[in-house]
């Protein structure tokens, strides 16, 4: 059994991470001034993109780095949304307190999901997480006394320090959490945990031979991913101001996975690109019947066949960054 020095010596990906961080930083800088030239609906779409990018960051840590497929992330997104909404609207907690507390509750659920699924891989893991997702969604639907069931929950605008948080304020809050998420994912992926997760994805036998505690890292990946997803869910609840259990179905989980595949598995920048593609492309094509779904499906297949590193990887190759 080897010590931590062996794990620390695993090959990193510093150069690729560096290019991702620089370009992501430029994108965030541009995002900071976006509200000055966007209309209300444009700001809504950009806020939604930031929220989905947070989900993609967390899911990429789990799937792109650790190789663990999850089809329950829409349900975790919903749990985060409901937990934040209920703590704020029914318990009377401040929104900025409800958001992280709701995320921590969801993190515990994410870790609980991971434990019985530790020995599962690939299709079996996907089916198991799909089952967990259905159970979570059904629980939200049936717990009518708390969640409102199929009638959903209508929410008033959140307040911070007695001031109502409008569309612009919520956008900057989502952007702030996205920046924190980028920083967290950057540090996690380039450190010992990221190297261990990548080795687990490549070969669990090799990882175990280096003294990596596979179960611990898998549970950690699920928990961190659930935390990211729940934060995004809490932001989403107050962006749309109405949540319903049916919104958090397996179709959304597949959409989340498609974001990181199209953007680029195992890349930080790919999470941003994938979320932007997922939100913007259907919007651009919404005037053409059935076009958004068709184009999205075609692009997804083309990326998987011809661009396995995603749009982010293609952009890096075009710019000469390896």
TrEMBL record:
PANTHER family: HIGH-AFFINITY BRANCHED-CHAIN AMINO ACID TRANSPORT PROTEIN BRAE (PTHR30482:SF10), HIGH-AFFINITY BRANCHED-CHAIN AMINO ACID TRANSPORT SYSTEM PERMEASE (PTHR30482). The keyword Cell cycle does not apply. The chain crosses the membrane at residues 21-38, 44-62, 69-87, 93-115, 122-141, 169-188, 219-240, 252-281, 293-312. One of its GO terms (cellular component) is plasma membrane. Its main location: membrane. CDD domains: TM_PBP1_LivM_like. Keywords: Cell membrane, Membrane, Transmembrane, Transmembrane helix. It holds the Pfam family BPD_transp_2. It is found in: Cell membrane. It is a multi-pass membrane protein. GO terms for molecular function: branched-chain amino acid transmembrane transporter activity. This is Branched-chain amino acid ABC transporter permease.
């Amino acid at each position: 059994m080897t010590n931590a020095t062996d794990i620390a010596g695993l090959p990193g990906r510093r150069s690729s991470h560096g290019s991702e961080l620089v370009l992501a930083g430029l994108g965030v800088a541009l995002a900071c001034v976006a509200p000055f030239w966007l209309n209300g609906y444009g700001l809504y779409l950009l806020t939604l993109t930031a929220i989905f990018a947070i989900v993609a960051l967390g899911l990429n840590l789990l799937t792109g780095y650790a190789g663990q497929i999850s089809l329950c992330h829409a349900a975790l997104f919903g749990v985060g949304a409901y937990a934040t909404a209920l703590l704020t609207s029914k318990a009377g907690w401040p929104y900025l307190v409800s958001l992280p507390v709701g995320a921590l509750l969801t993190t515990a659920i994410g870790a609980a999901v991971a434990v019985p699924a530790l020995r599962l891989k690939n299709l079996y893991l996907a089916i198991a997480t799909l089952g967990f997702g259905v159970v979570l969604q059904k629980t939200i639907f049936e717990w009518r006394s708390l969640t409102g069931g199929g009638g959903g929950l209508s929410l008033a605008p959140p307040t911070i320090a007695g001031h109502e948080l409008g569309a612009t304020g919520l956008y900057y809050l989502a952007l702030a959490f996205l920046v924190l998420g980028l920083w967290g994912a950057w540090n996690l992926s380039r450190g010992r945990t990221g190297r261990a997760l990548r080795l687990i994805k490549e070969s669990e036998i090799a990882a175990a031979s280096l003294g990596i505690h596979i179960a611990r890292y898998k549970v950690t990946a699920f928990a961190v991913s659930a935390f990211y997803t729940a934060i995004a869910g809490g932001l989403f609840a107050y962006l749309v101001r109405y949540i319903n259990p049916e919104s958090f179905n397996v179709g959304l989980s597949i959409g989340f996975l498609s974001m990181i595949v199209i953007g680029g598995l195992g890349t930080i920048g790919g999470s941003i690109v994938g979320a932007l593609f997922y939100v913007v492309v259907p919007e651009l094509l919404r005037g053409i019947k059935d076009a958004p779904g068709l184009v999205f499906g075609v692009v997804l297949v083309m990326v998987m066949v011809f661009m396995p590193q995603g749009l982010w990887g293609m952009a890096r190759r075009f710019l000469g960054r390896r």
